[in-house]
Amino acid sequence: MGPKLKTYLITGIIISGIVLGLYFYPKPSVFNESFEEGFGEWIADSDVPLDPNTGEDVFWEVTRTDSVSYSGSYSLNLSIDGRQDDGTVWIERRIAVNPNSNVQVKISFQLYSEFESEANDIAGVCAYLGTYDPEAEADFTRLGRANQVSGWKEYSHMTNLNTGPDGEIWVAVGITVLWETYMSYYIDDVEIIIS
Ligand SMILES: [Ca+2]
Ligand SMILES: [Ca+2]
Ligand SMILES: [Ca+2]
Question: Of 54, 61, 111, 135, which is least surrounded by CB within 10 A?
Answer without folding.
Answer: 54
